[in-house]
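Re: weekly structure request thread

Next one in the queue (66 aa):
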Amino acid sequence: MSTTTSELALTWRKSSHSGPEGDACIEVAARPGTVHVRDSKDADGARLAFAPDQWTAFVGYAAARA
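Done, posted below.
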């Protein structure tokens, strides 16, 4: 029997720098081999999944342009 990611419980984390409105944030959850990202305003909406090295590259790219 295989288990899909949607069947696994993910522990979502949001930045402590997120404002009280929380209207411009993403949440991130890590599983072995995958980093999941979702919009904090739409927890049941679409999610992205990255390999850890892809996520690291994206964060580095975004931080350099912030």
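The beta strands are 13-14, 26-31, 34-39, 47-50. The helical segments are 52-64.
Next request, please.
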